[in-house]
Amino acid sequence: MTKHNINYDTIIKLTNAISQCQDPEKIALITAENVTKAFDAKGCSVFLVNRKTRVMGLVASYGLSSKYLDKGIVCFMQPIKEAKDAVPIAIYDVMDDPRIQYPEEAKKEGISSLLGVPIISHNEIIGALRIYTEQPWEFSLNDISVVQAIALICGMAMEMSWMLKDHEEDLETCKMEDEEENTFGLGRIQNMNQLLRSIRGLKIEDPK
To answer: Can you give the pTM of this predicted structure?
Structure first.
C-alpha cells in the first residue's frame, strides 16, 4: 500500500480553485480532478441525489473510463449508504465486500479500494463523493476527515452557484416584466396623445 501524505493544503488549493467558478458541474469536476491528483488515486466521482427517482446521478468524474461510469444505475438506497446515512464508507477490497453494487465492473476497471463520503449542504444530504484507488488502501482517519471537508466545501459551492443562478433568473424575469410594463404604459400614453390630438382637431360649429 502506498503511503499518501494528505493535509489541509489540499483543501486550500481546492477552495481557491472552486471559488473562481460559478457553474455547479465545473465545481464538481474541479473537485474530482483535484481529489484524484492529491490522493494519487485511480479516480473520483461526484454524485447528486434525485429525491424523486431515488437515484444518484453522476455529475462529474475524473480518471475513470466511460465504460465503468455507464455500468448501471446507482441507487440512493444501495448498500453503500454514505449518501443516505451521512457517514463515510471505506472499503478495502471491492471484490470481497457485499456492499459493492458492481464488483465485476470495478475489477475490470482496476479498482481495489473505495472511500465514499456524503456531500452535505445546509444540513441536508445532496449527494456523495467517492474516491477509487488501484492499490488496496486502508484509509486513515486523517484521509477521511480531509475528504469529508472537501465534500462539504464542494456541496456549499454548488449550493451557492445554484442560488446565484436562481437569483440571476429572477432578476431577468423582473427585468422582462418591467420592460413589458413600461411598454404597456408607453402605449397608453401614446393612445392618450392621439386622443388629445383628435380632440384638438375637431371643428365645433356654432349652432344656428
So the answer is: 0.73
